[in-house]
Design brief:
Length: 399
């Protein structure tokens, strides 16, 4: 039995919609971080637990794992037929260039805002940006850790790219898809997720986002990325997710209740921690599959909004947090009601992005490259024409 990815030769619109919605959820989540009791880069003077904390705990359980899974699927569909060297070149352009640009342009603004009392201006901060590692020092990649992790995954994947697209592997992947597409068999992926965390959490207990000391979390994201790359291209898997979406959603609700109720029921702090962490890991998978099922059923369609939003969503991810930090720093110092502060921060950051994107990024090729976008078609055609002309000239000289 052959893997049936050929049935997915057309663009998978639901993957684009999920990416758009997930990054939008990151924007909302980071807005909430200004007001929730957890630590963050900018904080309101009054902080909230309760419903806000429960909601954000639930979002934290699955939004980033699912984003890595969708990134894996998007990688498969976007890069079929490309060589490993071409794959790394494409990933460098789309990931490494924006990462470097963001570290030097976007992140310093955020670190300066957090440490404004130590420097007279942003200009005076820049000579000190390499002094130590954040949070004690200044150098950081802040929210760009996601891009750094995706690029690291690309480096790991590239030597195996041809093997992952080879006939032998595709046959095995097809058999795996047939087995996992049986009712609730997708839950079996939870086993390697749990096994990896049981082992690695002994050595890397905390989620740090610094890569070097974050291999438990990174391995979890690696499994989600590979699941997206290997499983989602199979028609049987997405059909199973659509068919069983309500059951996976029910599982998500059950384990969410367990995660929130366990602190009240269990007397042991360690037992509560273990139950909560296991529940969170299960939620990350079951909610991801449920979301894929619902998205495939209801969002797998084209529209002008999808095309525009899909082009803008990557620059939006890069810009959203520095905008929230700067605007949040200013707005939280006012005497407005907290609910009004939240709305002002959210809509001001959104409007600031629309203006920056519409007038400074989208129209011009250099900003487009720095923010991971494709150059305008006429420019690509011009450079392609020049490259072809040079190649023909070289061949003619050799002849």
């Amino acid at each position: 039995m052959k893997f049936d990815s050929k049935n997915f030769s057309d663009r998978q619109y639901y993957i684009d919609w999920m990416r758009i919605l997930l990054i939008t959820s990151v924007f909302l989540y980071h807005t909430g971080m200004i007001f929730v009791t957890w630590g963050w880069h900018v904080k309101n003077d009054v902080l909230y637990g309760g419903t806000l904390r429960y909601l954000m705990s639930f979002l934290h359980s699955w939004r980033m794992p699912l984003l890595f899974m969708i990134s894996g699927a998007g990688t498969y569909f976007a890069l079929r037929g490309i060589s490993p060297a071409g794959y790394l070149a494409e990933r460098s352009r789309r990931l490494l260039v924006p990462l470097a640009a963001g570290i030097f342009i976007l992140v310093p603004v955020q670190v300066y805002i957090e440490k404004a009392s130590s420097y007279s201006s942003l200009v005076s901060y820049y000579p000190h940006m390499f002094e130590g590692i954040y949070p004690e020092g200044n150098f950081s990649w802040h929210h760009l850790w996601f891009i750094a992790y995706l690029f690291t995954l690309s480096l790991i994947l590239s030597p195996f790219l041809n093997a992952l697209r080879g006939q032998k592997f595709l046959i095995r992947a097809g058999k795996m898809a047939s087995f996992l597409s049986r009712p609730l068999n997708l839950n079996l992926v939870i086993v390697p997720l749990l096994f990896s965390q049981i082992i690695l959490r002994m050595f890397f207990e905390q989620e740090t986002h610094d890569l070097i000391n974050d291999w438990a979390t990174f391995t979890c994201y690696l499994i989600f990325f590979l699941a997206g790359f290997i499983l989602l291209p199979g028609k049987k898997i997405t059909e199973a997710a659509v068919r069983d979406r309500k059951i996976y959603l029910l599982e998500t609700l059950v384990f969410t209740a367990v995660m929130f109720i366990s602190p009240e029921l269990l007397k042991s702090e360690r037992a509560t921690e273990v139950v909560s962490e296991v529940s969170e890991l299960i939620i990350s998978w079951t909610c991801s599959i449920a979301a894929i099922g619902y998205a495939k059923k209801y969002l797998d369609s084209e529209s002008p909004l999808r095309r525009k939003a899909n082009e803008a969503i990557y620059p939006f991810y890069l810009l959203h947090q520095p905008l929230l930090v700067v605007i949040g720093y200013l707005v939280t110092k006012t005497n407005m009601a907290d609910w009004l502060k939240a709305l002002v921060i959210l809509f001001s950051a959104l409007m600031a992005f629309i203006l920056l994107y519409g007038f400074l990024i989208r129209p011009f090729n250099i900003p487009r490259v720095l923010f991971g976008m494709k150059t305008h078609k006429n420019v690509r055609e011009k450079w392609t024409s020049i490259a072809n002309s040079l190649q023909q000239k070289s061949e003619a000289e050799r002849a």
